[in-house]
Amino acid sequence: MTIRAEHEIHQRRKGRNVGVGLMLGGFVVLILALTFVKITGGDFEMPRIEEGQ
Amino acid sequence: MTDISYQAPSQETEASLGDYFALMKPRVMQLVVFTAVVGLLAAPVNVHPVIAFASILFVAIGAGASGALNMWWDADIDGVMKRTAKRPIPAGKVTPDEAKVLGFALSGLSVMMLALSANLLAAGLLAFTIFFYIAIYSMWLKRLTPQNIVIGGAAGAFPPVIGWVIATGSMSVEAWLMFALIFMWTPPHFWALALFMKSDYDDAGVPMLTVTHGRKSTRFHIIAYTVPLVVLAVGTAFSGVGGPIYLATAVVLNAMFLKGAYDIWRRDEPQAEADGYKVEKTFFRLSLWYLFLHFGAILVEALLPAAWGIWA
Question: pLDDT tens for residues B232-280?
């Protein structure tokens, strides 16, 4: 019996890892977009801690 | 023992990404996303598209999380019922512990992120919906009372309210009308399914109405819930989310739905068995279109300019 370097289970793991990676990447982009929209929105105010000090 | 023989058992249990996705009940998620989007767009407040997209995504993730937790809790009965035997846990693709961890992790993530993207009230409603579906419906009522579907239906009815709250930050009568529409629709929908799935719920020991009160009583319950549903669905036309398109849609659909419920009520088991539960299956398929088209009509009304005479 020979040991195959590429087994079906490796393909399945690779698919899973790529999928998780893409989802994490998408999540980062979504948070970035949300942050941008929130801080450029009309009702956003910067904290005024420095002014009082 | 060689490396190959050692790896063999894990090979059978290692899940693919698609198996984890299947845990999240994608078809239920579709309905949740659709009704939440309608709730969000029907609200009289404009939401930035990025915030709307992100918020609906987090609602979908929350719905998926509760689906995974439901599959974890119900793994024993899912394996017994024909309809659910191929789900990832009974099929041996995902372990119950994996489903539990995924469900809890995504529940926390979705609620937290919805609080950040929309508001605390929407996040609180999402958290309550997940809690209701898992603790109240799955863990408590489902195996205890034949009213399981009636009360449990509330969990599926919350998404349009959450959508509305994402937009407005508060609740109103229109949001609760959309809630009531799904809430009243759920029992006839599931009882029709229980009528033609025959022994499934019996085998699993789930006290569905067909098991505890018999099929004749279930047929009566379907029409008993359909009548108030029809009044509610048509009456919604005269609320803030209604309009002439919704009214026309509702009148046609409710006439068909009432006719279907009446036909089910007038039949008995020998008649149903003779034609392979044709009327019950038709009613079940119609019920899917019924909900989709009612919310579709609310969406159309929301997207059209407000120039509709008495509805303007």
Answer: 999 999 999 999 999 999 999 999 999 999 999 999 888 888 888 899 9
CA dist B80 and B172 (Å) reads: 42
Residue B167's region, left for phi above 0, alpha for psi from -120 to 50, else beta, is alpha
Q: Per-residue pLDDT for B181 more than 90?
A: yes
Q: Do B16 and A34 touch (CB under 8 A)?
A: no
Q: What is the largest CA-CA distance in chain B?
A: 80
**B51 to chain A, minimum CA–CA distance in Å?**
6
Residues in A 1-20 with any Cβ partner in B closer than 8 A: 1, 3, 8-9, 12-13, 15-16, 19-20
pLDDT in tens, B109-148: 999 999 999 999 999 999 999 999 999 999 998 888 888 8
> With a CB-CB cutoff of 8 Å, which residues 78-137 of chain B face chain A?
116-117
Domain boundary assignment for chain B: 17-171, 172-312
Give me B207's structure tokens: 């006290």
Q: Which residues, other chains included, contact B310 with Cβ-Cβ below 8 Å and sequence gap of 6+? A: none
Q: Is the model's pLDDT at B11 over the cut of 60?
A: no
Q: What are the phi and psi torsion angles at B221 (to 5°)?
A: -60, -35
Residues of chain B found within 8 Å of residue A33, distances taken between Cβ atoms: 50, 54
Q: What is the pLDDT of residues A10-21, one digit of tens each?
A: 877 888 899 999
Q: For B10, which residue in chain A has the nearest alpha carbon?
A: A9
What is the predicted ipTM? 0.77
Closest CA to B175 of B161, B157, B185, B154: B161
CB B164 within 8 A of CB B39: yes
**Cα(B234)–Cα(B250) distance, rounded to whole angstroms?**
6
- Residues of A within 8 A of B17 (CB-CB) are 15-16, 19-20
Q: Residue B17: how many CB atoms within 10 A of its CB?
A: 16
Is the domain B17-171 a CATH 1.10.357.140 member? Answer: yes
Rounded Cα distance, B202 and B308, in Å: 50
CA atoms within 13 A on the CB side of B133: 25
Write the single-letter amino acid at B77. I
